[in-house]
């Protein structure tokens, strides 16, 4: 019997370990600092403050009636078993109104979601919002477990197990309710009417460990191919970790950087990235995410340029189905290689690539990082121009002269202002002329662009043929230094090696007088922001 007893103890110990290991804390807030996850406020009527390790909701406007809700997004799989809890302390105000825990809510306003409430008069209830309107699920229940005196901290918990929700107060189960479909993965705090309530230790636990262990890849090329497929199906939000850092993008947005559960073996770190216009709202898993694998970091720019070719070669040697298109900075040094799936005569790209970029974690340093972008409608199929360049005709010479002027964004080559400019644009005549053009002008709209109107008043039934003919003419002029991409009847021509070089576009434009179409050649150089050639 002694051996059986020992075996039973070992078995129970193992089971308890398995259960403990299966629980994953998805979110925890102890309000130790104001941090950047909550939007705090104070005015002459109400307050949400983070002070002395507590989140405080307080209304002191005698005329106020309603609810105060503070919620935050999480990584919860809404179909899994979970536990969500918070510690709440009633410190004053009207005792017959509720305060407590928000869960299964959406991000919108008015809110749809669920709330588990206590009232300092000795009651609890379970209810939900549907577009801001309250529906009671369990009406107010009187119980001695709820403390009636102020300044008594109590823990509220909702635990989903299978098909039921278990309601617990101070770790004692007080009720159960059939599990409902969640509106979202937001959790938070709520207080009704004129009360002051302090909150602490808001926590969300995945009881079923829906987050599976990371996949281990044999090499970086296997990881790239597999993660590209994952990106096209589930998206990178499905493999992001729990913790994150937030970076200001320098304009009006923020970058959330999550650790990735699947990584490149040769990389130091692999991150899941998502951009947002708010550092308060944690992006949902369904938002568009990118992936970044950092192969080297903390480098000088010169050291990064020296290491870049070796890292690129290691990838390109085994990614045989992908084309690496290397770009040079203004000093003729490599700083980026776009990666696109090979097609017949070109490659298809969504902007993925290897680049030298500023190291976000080390001031003044650089890193070499591979970035895979979320699928986008702006992905291009690019085809190489293979014809030998012809630059002996007047048209060819004048066109390439205009391209040369574009290196300086046509500064100093403008004539007097002319009419016809679009939104945020100023249109000028120009001393630069393309031979054979009916009109030449420069338009300033977030940087100068040169336009040569080659033909006008083309009937709609002829425009496709005319555009194809002009495309062939440009192919002959530009030669194999450029590759092109086509979208509808329009074409774009980009330098195959020099990323900072001007690009050309062949555009059809509907005449403003409604009399057919015009064919226009545009030459433009991207606006350069400081250090842009070193960012990706």
Give a short summary of the structure:
The radius of gyration is 31 Å and the shape is elongated. With 536 residues, the protein is an alpha+beta fold. It has five helices and 33 strands.
Topology:
Elements: H1 2-22, E1 24-29, E2 41-42, E3 46-51, E4 54-59, E5 67-72, E6 82-93, E7 98-105, E8 113-119, E9 123-130, E10 133-142, E11 153-161, E12 164-169, E13 172-178, E14 186-192, E15 195-206, H2 220-233, E16 245-248, E17 254-259, E18 269-276, E19 290-299, H3 301-318, E20 322-328, E21 334-343, E22 346-349, E23 353-358, E24 366-372, E25 380-384, H4 394-405, E26 414-418, E27 426-430, E28 439-444, E29 448-458, H5 460-478, E30 482-487, E31 490-495, E32 503-510, E33 517-524
Antiparallel strand pairs: 1-15, 2-3, 3-4, 4-15, 5-14, 6-11, 6-15, 7-8, 7-14, 8-9, 9-10, 11-12, 12-13, 16-17, 17-18, 18-19, 19-24, 20-21, 21-22, 21-23, 22-25, 23-24, 25-30, 26-27, 27-28, 28-29, 29-33, 30-31, 31-32, 32-33
**The CATH top-level class label of the largest domain:** Mainly Beta
- Give the N-terminus to C-terminus distance in angstroms: 69 Å
**CATH fold topology of the largest domain:** Jelly Rolls
Number of domains: 3
* Estimated share of beta-strand residues: 35-45%
Structural class: alpha+beta
Q: How many strand segments?
A: 33
CATH superfamily of the largest domain: Exo-inulinase, domain 1
Helix content: 10-25%
Please mark out the parts with pLDDT under 50 across 5 or more consecutive residues, or reply none.
1-21, 528-536
General shape: elongated
């Amino acid at each position: 019997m002694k051996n059986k007893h020992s075996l039973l103890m070992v078995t129970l110990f193992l089971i308890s370990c398995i259960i403990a290991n299966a629980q994953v804390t998805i979110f925890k807030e102890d309000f130790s600092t104001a941090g950047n996850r909550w939007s705090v406020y104070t005015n002459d009527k109400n307050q949400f403050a983070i002070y002395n390790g507590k989140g405080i909701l307080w209304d002191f406007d005698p005329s106020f009636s309603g609810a105060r809700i503070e919620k935050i997004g999480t990584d919860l799989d809404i179909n899994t078993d979970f536990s969500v809890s918070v510690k709440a302390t009633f410190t004053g105000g009207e005792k017959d109104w509720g305060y407590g825990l928000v869960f299964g809510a959406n991000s919108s306003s008015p809110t749809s979601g669920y709330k588990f409430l206590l009232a300092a008069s000795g009651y609890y209830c379970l209810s939900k919002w549907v577009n801001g309107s309250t529906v009671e699920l369990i009406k107010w229940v009187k119980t001695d477990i709820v403390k009636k005196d102020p300044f008594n901290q109590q823990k509220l918990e909702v635990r989903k197990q299978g098909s039921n929700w278990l309601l617990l107060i101070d770790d004692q189960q007080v009720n159960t309710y059939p599990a409902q479909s969640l509106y979202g993965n937001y959790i938070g705090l709520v207080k009704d009417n004129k009360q002051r309530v302090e909150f602490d230790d808001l926590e969300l636990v995945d009881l079923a460990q829906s987050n599976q262990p990371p996949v281990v890849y044999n090499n970086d090329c296997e990881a790239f191919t597999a993660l590209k497929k994952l990106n096209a199906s589930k998206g990178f939000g499905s493999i992001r970790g729990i913790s994150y850092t937030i970076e200001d993008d320098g304009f009006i947005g923020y970058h959330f950087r999550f650790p990735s559960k699947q990584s490149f073996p040769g990389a130091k770190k692999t991150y899941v990235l998502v951009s947002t216009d708010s550092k308060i709202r944690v992006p949902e898993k369904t938002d568009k995410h990118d992936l970044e694998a950092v192969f080297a970091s903390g480098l000088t720019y010169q050291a990064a340029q020296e290491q870049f070719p070796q890292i690129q070669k290691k990838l390109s040697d085994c990614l045989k189905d992908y084309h690496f298109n290397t770009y040079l900075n203004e000093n003729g040094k490599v700083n980026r290689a776009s990666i696109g799936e090979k097609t017949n005569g070109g490659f298809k790209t969504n902007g993925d690539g290897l680049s030298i970029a500023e190291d976000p974690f080390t001031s003044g340093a650089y890193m070499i990082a591979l970035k895979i972008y979320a699928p986008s409608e702006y992905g291009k199929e690019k085809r190489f121009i293979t014809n030998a360049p012809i630059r002996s005709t007047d048209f060819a010479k004048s066109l390439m002269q205009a391209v040369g002027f574009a290196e300086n964004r046509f500064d100093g080559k403008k004539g007097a202002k002319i009419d016809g400019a679009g939104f945020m644009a100023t249109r000028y005549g120009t001393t630069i002329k393309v031979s054979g053009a009916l009109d030449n002008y420069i338009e300033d709209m977030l940087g100068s662009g040169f336009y040569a109107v080659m033909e006008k008043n083309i009937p709609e039934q002829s425009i496709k043929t005319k555009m194809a003919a002009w495309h062939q003419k440009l192919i002959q002029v530009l030669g194999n230094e450029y590759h092109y991409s086509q979208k509808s009847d329009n074409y774009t021509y980009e330098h195959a090696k020099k990323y900072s070089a001007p690009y050309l576009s062949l555009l059809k434009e509907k005449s403003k007088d409604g009399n057919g179409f015009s064919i226009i050649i545009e030459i433009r150089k991207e606006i350069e922001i400081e250090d842009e050639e070193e960012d990706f």
